[in-house]
């Protein structure tokens, strides 16, 4: 457990630093292009969505769900500790990513048309111009994830979580200088080639340098790598069978996301739309990335080892420990964000009115923060047993609900029953509903596979954490009201929003943490030990 704590602390520290700089990047981006009602921000959002969606489709689920267990197995069974296997894997990955990039560049006009079919013509044109600059990101995103997952499988956790800081610093510098040179832009018209290349080129350069940074840490993996096109014997048939289900799982998720983005773009330039959904999701996923990924990644590597050894009891115990630790931390984070939701939203918007619209979307997402966090451990447990088929089916259920709720929202909009200003909120709410249902299906499926999961204790603890979190959030909201509420100082400017969010968050987390210590919750002490490891110099 001590080694898991150290690994979690390394990942948490790197992820926290990466996400903190990423948050600054998003603030600068929101300053330059806006969020609510900004056609320029929506155009850039559609362009950036393209490489992210394609990358997720071909790599994300495959790497997390298939590659890590295969590398762990190769290390255990091969005399070269997996060097030959990883060499073939990397060579294949580079070839596939390069081929997909070429196809994506050729099909860029069609991709923009698909994702932005309800955007005005000038916004579509700007999105296409951005797309040609940012689409090459998918190659570097894919290579970055492949290298990072290999390092994680070899228990070299730091570089993968720390290297995004490079990307964020490049983006902050580039977008900041864009504002200095060209000013603030909200409309889709008036963009020169120099302006487009400045924004798009900055995005591409950051991801490229982030990927190159991993190569400087490759020696720690203790693998001898060379180009190897002899893919026979790598187990492609077995990997393809596993990856097939993972590919389908990610595909249905991307289709659901496509339908969301296509329909919410009807509000582009008028109300909360593409950029608002993306930015609110980035804030929503921040605690998930810092807490769940940092704790879950080393737990997953350990679970894969237990599953390979056939130790079912150890797998269940690991899942229970992970669930309790993630729950106590995530509930605290949720309480702090809910209490400070208006000041946080003000940081990413132009005025208090837009902050309220943004906060509605963010709040709708936040409803599913705990279910999504719990689902991480369940899904990775399936992956540890090389089961990618079952996660596909409970993801399919989620995607169906996402699509259905999105189409219902659009129908209500067309009938006049839903204001355009609430379209993004309704779509985000449907996403959260789908995550609740998905968690229920996932837990039931895992229980059928492994028998009783012994999660009664962790779930009872979760109820306690939620009760304490609700009280803490109420106290934090009281602080917000003391600062004047929506019409007061806390939401008057971006910088006041930052200060107010910090004050409210500290009060909320302080109350929550103190309550956990008074109640003698064991995971509270574990969290404190992790925090000490994260602090500079530790």
Automatic annotation (TrEMBL):
GO biological process: lipid translocation; peptidoglycan biosynthetic process; regulation of cell shape
Keywords noted in UniProt: Cell membrane, Cell shape, Membrane, Peptidoglycan synthesis, Transmembrane, Transmembrane helix
Protein name in the entry: Putative peptidoglycan lipid II flippase
Annotated membrane topology: Multi-pass membrane protein
Transmembrane segments: 27-48, 54-72, 84-110, 130-153, 165-183, 195-218, 239-259, 279-300, 325-344, 356-378, 390-413, 419-441, 462-483, 495-519
GO molecular function: lipid-linked peptidoglycan transporter activity
Main localization, broad class: membrane
A single cellular component GO annotation: plasma membrane
Taxonomic lineage from the root: Bacteria, Bacillati, Actinomycetota, Actinomycetes, Micrococcales
Record's subcellular location: Cell membrane
